Amino acid sequence: MAEQNVPNKLGINILSSEQQEKLRQFKIKTRIENESYLMAHPEVELMIGDFLRNVLLKRPDDILEFAAGKFETHKLCWFKTRPLWGPPQGAHVPPGECVP
């Protein structure tokens, strides 16, 4: 049985009871704020889902380079104009332009 005063790997026992309660309240508040934001912005879920689907389908060797290409400004325009469907097959959006 571990002693109560011995810090665990996360260092939680280093905090006082008051600090632990403040941390708990902060985590709850942050989670509520994050959930509210995500509910107000469903495009986040669509973008992440689309990105993950493409990563798993294409399995790029350099995921950071792949992500940079996927999230180029001109490609993100499609999420603004057609968030549920994406660009039509073969559509080309010139860099810096947002086609409705």
TrEMBL record:
InterPro entries per record: RIIAD1
Record CDD domains: DD_RIIAD1 (cd22971)
SUPFAM superfamilies referenced in this protein's UniProt entry, alphabetically: Dimerization-anchoring domain of cAMP-dependent PK regulatory subunit (SSF47391)
Domain of life: Eukaryota
Protein's recorded name: RIIa domain-containing protein
Organism annotation: Cynoglossus semilaevis
Organismal lineage: Eukaryota, Metazoa, Chordata, Craniata, Vertebrata
